[in-house]
Amino acid sequence: xxxxxxxxxxxxxxxxxxxxxxxxxxxxxxxxxxxxxxxxxxxxxxxxxxxxxxxxxxxxxxxxxxxxxxxxxxxxxxxxxxxxxxxxxxxxxxxxxxxxxxxxxxxxxxxxxxxxxxxxxxxxxxxxxxxxxxxxxxxxxxxxxxxxxxxxxxxxxxxxxxxxxxxxxxxxxxxxxxxxxxxxxxxxxxxxxxxxxxxxxxxxxxxxxxxxxxxxxxxxxxxxxxxxxxxxxxxxxxxxxxxxxxxxxxx
Length: 251
Prior knowledge:
Blueprint: H1 14-32, H2 42-48, E1 51-52, H3 53-56, H4 63-66, H5 74-118, E2 123-125, H6 128-144, H7 151-171, H8 179-196, H9 203-219, H10 221-232, E3 248-250
Parallel strand pairs: 2-3
Antiparallel strand pairs: 1-2
Helix pairs in contact: 1-5, 5-6, 5-8, 5-9, 6-7, 6-8, 8-9
């Protein structure tokens, strides 16, 4: 009797590699420009593209995206990249390369919106809002989608991602951590994952849902800008890139 061929290896997690490389490249560019490798200041981060209400909610909405690729020191970068390395490939196996890249951006914007709604004067940066988005998507997909996996394996994966979310949300109660951004990313990911759960096998439908989600979360910057407009008036952006800001919040 001939032996069965071994199962095919999992596909290369190209999206995860792209996201890791982009985050590391942005951090290296910051350091090479003279910014501290361990303790960049709030003004440094704002100049590099951190989320900051007076700018994100007015003339520079792109900061809701760029903040997800910016980190507050080497340790912050290393922790977030470790989480992305462990979680990204799993999501990528369900929704593909393009889907994972779109999911990272969309949930990162969702994280920024939650942070801006809670306190638009925070200077926030980091990938963990988008990483919580990945966790939220995995929770919804593992719970609601019909997967070609053994039920015990699905339960083990679901338990892992739920524990990750719970532990990191508790850790986020410490000072200096933007837990609202974590919640925003998680909720955005849960919603997108739920929408994707019934169409995982249809690449065109997945892409359409992710593009729609990206459009919806981006449009949410408009009502947040209207609601928070009065909170931005007392603060001034100084010339030559200097900003009167509090200390940065880790994302």
